[in-house]
Amino acid sequence: MSRKRWRSFAVAWTVASLMFCAVAAAADGDADTSFGEGGLALVASADDTVAIIPADAMTLPDGKLLFSGARHRLLPENPPFEPEIRAMLVRMNADGSADASFGDSSIPGLVVLPDLVPGTRIQTLESMTRLDDGTIVAVGAGVADSPSQGFVVKLDAEGALDTSFGNQGVVLLPDYSLHAVAIDSQGRIVACGEHLLDFHNTSALLRFDAGGTPDASFGDNGVVSIPWSDAEQAAYLSDVVLTADDGIVAGGRFAAYGPGVDSDFAIVRLAADGSFDASFGGGTGWRVFHDDADTSTANGIDRLALLADGGIVFAGYHGVGDGFRGFALGRRVSSMSTRCRARARSTPARWRSSRTANRSSR
Question: How many domains does the chain have?
């Protein structure tokens, strides 16, 4: 594979994945040759761009494809293997060609956002959602070479910062890192991630009004910290989904075994006012759990989805030994009891609350 094609590979793979559902409907499973070249679309690199890495994707109402993530660019003054990484959007036509009307860079279809967190070398749009008027709300973080800061941005349909939002289009959150975002029925912005404390990270849910101001009616000036079974242990939230009544469900991982990299699956459910949903987790509003038949102590949730009956589906990982991770998929039943159906490594598993969570609920 040539260097140019390798630079383009990350976006191409995501494009192909997004189109897979349509292609898979064909009886013979052949590539959709009307998309890109033989079913594969590549975003061409140029100049000093060494990588375009997508983190989130969506299909727009007109059929175009939008990706958020980061653009990696080599700078002469930076040490080797330390590129400047900036938040970006890529827009492609429904046929897989680059949307040349989007952006004004040397790479058709690419918009690189300005320096959102001055002083940080790495900035990524980790998650985005689209409003009915076509504007985009996205979250991420700036890290490396300067104290970390989370951010929420609002962009117009062409990728430009909406200066009426926050401070010239950006809300900065010192010592936070944000990974997922959603918009509730009242237009409020709900984000999840972690608060970076002196000795550990605590998982947090944040809510803002449509203009980017923290929602003072939600938690502590717009922030709800999740204590799990021990507020002094590290925890992370990777994804957030909203219920029909603006309730909030978020998932990630919690250091159930004490300091270190080991963790268990963790899900929290809040009511619309930010209080813990007492109908979930045996009254706590949260649940930390793992499969007792599995010896893994490196478990975590990456993505969530809600079922029509209120059940929660989660996808993530679990340790399979020697530093490797396997895929884990589970489902919490709609009754919110401790029962759950799950499958990890294609093996049926019995999911129960972790010993740490059980101790906290006694």
Answer: 2
Are 130 and 180 part of one and the same domain? no
The sign of the CA dihedral 255, 256, 260, 262 is: negative
Residue numbers of the domain that contains 258: 175-200+233-362
- Determine whether 25 is exposed, middle or buried from the number of CB atoms within 10 Å of its CB (0-12, 13-18, 19+): exposed
Position 218 in a domain: no
Report the amino acid identity of residue 89.
L
Asked if the structure places residue 205 within a domain, the reply is no
Is residue 231 within 8 Å of residue 254, measured between CB atoms? no
Query: What is the C-alpha separation between 75 and 85, in angstroms, rounded?
Result: 10
Are the C-beta atoms of residues 178 and 207 closer than 8 Å to each other? no
> What does DSSP say about strands 201-208 and 223-225: parallel, antiparallel, or unpaired?
antiparallel
pTM of the model: 0.84
User: For residue 135, what are the CA distances in angstroms to 65, 87, 128, 153, 176?
Assistant: 15, 17, 10, 10, 24
Question: Which tens digits make up the pLDDT trace of 244-253?
Answer: 999 999 999 9
> Tell me: the pLDDT tens digits for 313-335?
999 998 888 878 888 888 876 44
